[in-house]
Design brief:
Length: about 600
């Protein structure tokens, strides 16, 4: 981060600038804060580019397309203004360093980390390509590392597949050393070009040097077109995949989905071997989504590079230590969008929630304070000397079959609100509005409608049922209302939907994977007692089957069935002690 200069704007749309994050030929990227208190990276396009009507039209189309890209490894677009003198695009801010910084400081990454990195970046490119875009500048500097995985950033030169160039004919767009041969020859880019760039990034991460040499410029372009990549030092299991990605002929490269599959699959030939994408049929074409569902690989595969947690914590602290900007005028933005109306306030606050969730997803101890000045909040107005009050909605089953869980949510939320309001230094107050859906799907939709219609509600906890239904996710997403789900074990919503949705625990179908990863890496266990509770046969079967199929290396699995009716926990405790178990896994939903 660098301090703002006298020439830098103090406000960009609804955002107040805090510092410079970087600058390039297209514009300047600022760290900024919304009226809701969320941090964002705001890229402002230089006026000379914006003066070109063709550029502005393409920027508008691309900003709209980028806003539709969703996925866990793509930094979400929070907002844009394509009609101003200097157009801008805001994305969620990630406090992590770039891949270039990490490799530059510490050298090549372990093979397991490179494999997880590639799988997630391929997943991100799948989302980009499905939106009809080509990124065109996949490079180590555009990959940020959070504690839970990488994030692909910078859609500043992204474009529709087959669209005309942003600059004059014959211009090369991208970064020499990481762009594909067809891009180096100023040809039309396409998804295979992004795959080539991904291969360069993986080669860099695995060896600590660019595959086509250092120095960039014309030399790197020449080597990219005419010479083979230098992949000496790449682990043999990864070599066929990276080599396939770096094929000179775009038609010979695998699609991003095939790269993801090859990295995620455990192919014959021993653990850790990555399947050559040529082993998959139809590697060029777009995969059938029924055959290749877009599901990320197991989250426990990602191993943060050494020193990353401390670096993220340091950067998060530096960001939070920045001085607060002056309050935004209530009339900023186009007419009807920057006033104290409910929809405009909701748009700012929920975009902020997405950024806060992204930071939390990197496991950083980051607190994003709400800093609105009367924009739809309840309580006293700004200038009265009294703190503002923000309302948290609770969508719960308080009178139906899930009453016990719903009441637990309400008690916990009330305690949290009371604890916050008791702080003498609290900058604002919180209130809780609880709505009961009685576990009825029809009532649940009406409950969601009531909470969404209340302009004072800035976020919702719930619904509290075991199943998170797609229609509820869509209802809150339509209102861009931040939704925090705690208890759901499964969902009918598609993966990646709900930009403003935060699910705080894995769903049941992937929970066992997380448990195995925990007992393998975080708290290694040598004697594991597996308890399958017949009172919850679905969870018992899923957990038990997963552990029997993938017993952690070097561990002994002991089993103890638990009869229906919650009887026998005393016997379980005795067996855990007498058998010398150092871990007990309960397959069942009874806490």
């Amino acid at each position: 981060m660098r301090p703002l200069t006298s020439q830098d704007p103090r406000a960009v749309g609804p955002y107040r600038t805090l510092a410079r994050l970087g600058a390039g030929g297209m514009g300047v990227v600022y760290l900024a804060r919304s009226a809701g208190g969320a941090l964002a990276a705001v890229k402002v396009i230089r006026a000379e580019h914006a003066d070109d009507p063709g550029f502005r039209a393409r920027f508008r189309r691309e900003a709209e397309a980028a806003a539709r890209i969703t996925g866990p490894w793509v930094v979400p677009v929070l907002g844009a203004d394509t009609g101003g003198r200097e157009p801008w695009l805001a994305t969620a801010f990630v406090a992590g360093p770039s891949l270039a910084e990490v490799v530059g400081a510490g050298g090549a990454l372990p093979t397991a980390t490179v494999r997880a990195l590639g799988s997630r970046l391929a997943e991100a490119l799948m989302a980009v390509h499905e939106a009809g875009l080509v990124h065109r500048d996949v490079k180590p500097g555009n990959v940020l590392l959070a504690l839970d995985g990488p994030r692909l950033i910078d859609f500043g030169i992204a474009r529709h597949e087959g669209a005309t160039a942003l600059t004059t004919t014959g211009a090369v767009i991208g970064t020499p050393g990481y762009l594909a041969p067809e891009q180096a020859l100023a040809g039309l880019p396409g998804p295979p070009g992004d795959v080539f760039s991904l291969g360069c990034v993986l080669g860099y991460a695995a060896t600590g040097r660019p595959p086509f040499g250092a120095g960039g410029g014309a030399g790197a372009l020449y080597r990219t077109i005419h010479e083979e990549p230098d992949l000496a030092g790449v682990e043999s299991g990864l070599l066929p995949l990276i080599t396939a990605c770096l094929a000179k002929d775009p038609a010979a490269r695998p699609a991003a989905s095939r790269v993801r599959d090859a990295l995620a699959a455990e192919a014959p030939g021993g653990p850790g071997r990555v399947r050559d994408p040529r082993e998959y049929p139809g590697r060029r074409g777009a995969p059938d989504p029924r055959e290749h569902p877009r599901t990320p690989p197991a989250p426990d595969l990602w191993q943060p590079p050494a020193g990353l947690p401390a670096l993220i914590a340091e950067r998060s602290a530096a960001v939070l230590a920045l001085p607060d900007p002056e309050p935004l005028p209530a009339t900023l933005g186009p007419a009807g969008e920057g006033t104290a109306s409910g929809p405009a306030r909701r748009r700012l606050l929920t975009a902020g929630a997405a950024g806060a969730v992204l930071l939390a997803g990197g496991s950083t101890a980051t607190w994003i304070a709400l800093r609105g000045r009367g924009e739809g909040a309840g309580g006293p107005s700004a200038g009265s000397g009294e703190p503002l009050t923000y309302t948290i909605g609770l969508h719960a089953d308080l009178g139906g079959p899930g009453r016990a869980t719903g009441l637990a949510h309400r008690r916990g939320a009330q305690l949290a609100v009371t604890d916050h309001n008791a702080r003498p230094d609290a900058a604002f107050r919180l209130a809780l509005r609880a709505e009961d859906d009685a576990g009825d799907p029809a009532k649940a939709l009406r409950t969601a409608a009531r909470l969404a219609a209340d302009p004072g509600v800035i976020a919702v906890v719930g619904p509290t049922g075991r199943l998170l239904r797609e229609d509820l996710v869509q209802r809150y997403e339509t209102e861009r209302l931040a939704t925090v789900v705690v208890a759901a074990g499964s969902t009918t919503a598609e993966s990646g939907t709900g930009l403003h949705l935060c699910v705080t625990r894995p769903f049941d179908d992937v929970l066992a994977t997380g448990l195995i990863g925990y007992l393998t890496r975080t708290r290694p266990a040598t004697r594991i007692l597996l308890v399958e509770d017949a009172a919850d046969p679905v969870s018992a079967k899923e957990t038990g089957g997963a552990f029997r199929d993938a017993v952690p290396a070097g561990a002994t699995l002991l089993e103890h069935p638990l009869v229906r009716g919650n009887a026998g926990f005393g016997a379980v405790a005795r067996k855990a002690v007498t058998s010398g178990a150092d871990a007990v896994v309960l397959g069942g939903g009874d806490a």
